[in-house]
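Hi there,

I know you've been waiting on this one. I reran it after we fixed the sequence typo, so this is the corrected version. Both the input and the resulting structure follow.
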Amino acid sequence: MGGPHRPSVTVALVTEPSYLAAIRESYDTVAAAYLTVVKRPTELDPLSRALLTAFAEVVRTDDLGPVADLGCGPGLVTAHLADLGVRVFGVDLSPRMIELARRARPGLDFRVGSMTALETGDGELGGVLAYYATHHTPPDSLPAVFAEFHRTLAPGGRLMLAGHVGDGERLRPTEAYGGHPVSYESHLLPPDRIAGLLAEAGFVVTARLVQEPTEGATRRSGTFLARKTGA
């Protein structure tokens, strides 16, 4: 005689998208070199510095909750916002980047995590900063990322998104930051498309600025300031 019947159970395994693994591995590899070459916020051009300062002012004034600096890298911009009086924490996929950030500013909160699935409750944040942090995301994955920004922001919460823009180019570098191997891709979307995706996610874009390449640079950059709708 057979034993009691046990129904079969199928376990679904959640597989991380390959692009996230490529970003994590690449930035773990280049972290030390990145820190030596990336500009500090105080070294940015006047417009970029002014936009960061404006974002800091509105989130301080609104006081709807802390700000998440997503894709914070070694925490340079996170620390800058903190110095401007913002309640802020940093999140990055790369454990090595977070290690460098914690070492430089041990008094700040830095967490390993992904902007695709934040360990933050609905409506808990007063602001989200994605500073040169979303261009590695494939375009068809951006709606889910922007939806996650929207989910975690309080009604009226602020978003600042800045990064490289273009005409839809897809770049596949094999090395970066002094010849270190990388496997991520970069997607340079038109500014109108980024603004449209933000609107579809429930944001009102309040300002945007497209800057032509500065000396020594080859890519245009775009900055978007937006607000989550709702009472």
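Quick highlight: The helical segments are 18-37, 46-62, 76-83, 95-104, 142-152, 191-200.

Best,
R. S.
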